[in-house]
Specification:
By secondary structure, the protein is of the alpha+beta class. Helix content is 13%, strand content 26%. The chain contains four helices and 21 strands. A hairpin with a 6-residue loop joins strand 17 and strand 18. The longest helix has 21 residues.
Length: 315
């Protein structure tokens, strides 16, 4: 048994030997073969079958380090899991050193551009929009207001004359559809729960099934994003509101929504609402969407007969 006094003495001797070795051998090489490091490197990793993994974290986890970051932390490297970027800390802020480009090699459909955001490739404007948004209330970028699960059959068509001035260009009818394709381009109105445009819910609408998507409103090769994909997108925003939504590469807008009875809401120019392809797992009469205003943003679920904006993501 080592006595405490002798044990302390041994620790002191080991520490002195370690300090001496580090002062005389300032270079380190890590390899299976025991190669010495290159004269220019303080640390060299040598391998033909393994790589280097730097710390991987979310944006919020990265930001939790703010209290310990200072000028001595210049050039600190991390991998941002949400943005799929290697980031470095320089000049008191984080910079993207390299990012995965999910749009590389992807062709834009006719009438659209493409943008990379939150690790995915997206269309650069809402379905039905004539241009990329130049402000969060750019009415030329509002586009159509779709009922959840319906085709691009012009039931969604709105003529926007200003940021809060509009006219529906589709007809209305109160007879619920009995099939997935109503066979007309009218907005189907309903005032009775479950406030769906279709008799009997079909949870398979807008879902990927063996490579095909039932009632897909997006161009070929594109689809409506899931709520998880929308959550990833919201996590990448600079602020949890309509300003953060617009400042993202997607440049999202505040087209409000169309009520199940047909009228367009008074929230045009203030609220943005975007459908996801995900049905609600608690209330199966509803589907998930995201909403953002001047003060907050959040995911939620709502009646399928409402009219919301649609933005498409690459399959």
């Amino acid at each position: 048994m080592i006595k405490p006094k002798h044990f302390t003495k041994q620790i002191l001797i080991a520490s002195l030997l370690l300090a001496y070795s580090l002062s005389n051998f300032a270079q380190v090489s890590i390899s299976h073969e025991g190669f010495e490091s290159h004269p220019s490197a303080i640390l060299e990793l040598i391998s033909t079958d393994k790589g280097l993994l730097i710390p991987r974290m979310s944006t919020s986890e990265r930001d939790n380090m703010e209290d310990v970051l200072d000028s001595d932390a210049e050039s600190l490297l991390i991998y941002n899991k949400e943005k799929k970027c290697i980031e470095t800390y320089v000049g008191g802020e984080w910079h993207e050193f390299w990012c995965y480009d999910p749009c590389k090699g992807v062709d834009a459909p006719e009438g659209f551009g493409i943008v990379a955001s939150s690790g995915s490739c997206w269309l650069d404007r809402n379905l039905g929009a004539s241009q990329v948004a130049e402000s969060f209330d750019d009415y030329n970028a509002y586009g159509g207001l779709f009922q959840w699960g319906r085709l691009d059959d012009n039931h969604q068509f709105i003529e926007w004359n200003g940021s809060d001035s509009y006219e529906s260009k589709s007809g209305e009818r109160s007879d619920l559809a009995t099939e997935d394709n109503p066979g007309h381009n009218d907005f189907i109105t309903t005032g009775e729960p479950p406030l769906d445009w279709r008799e009997g819910h079909n949870d398979n609408l807008w879902q990927v099934d063996n490579g095909s998507i039932l009632n897909n409103p997006c161009p070929d090769g594109w689809r409506v994003p899931t709520i998880d994909e929308w959550n990833d997108e919201m996590d990448s925003w600079n602020s949890d509101d309509r300003y953060g939504a617009y400042e993202s590469p997607l440049k999202l807008t505040v087209a409000g929504f169309r009520q199940t009875l047909g009228p367009i809401s008074s929230y045009v120019g203030d609220w943005g609402n975007y459908w996801s392809s995900t049905t609600d797992d608690v209330d199966n009469a509803k589907a998930n969407f995201i909403c953002f205003t001047s003060n907050f943003s959040f995911p939620d679920s709502n009646w399928r007969g409402l009219g919301y904006s649609v933005r498409c993501i690459k399959e």
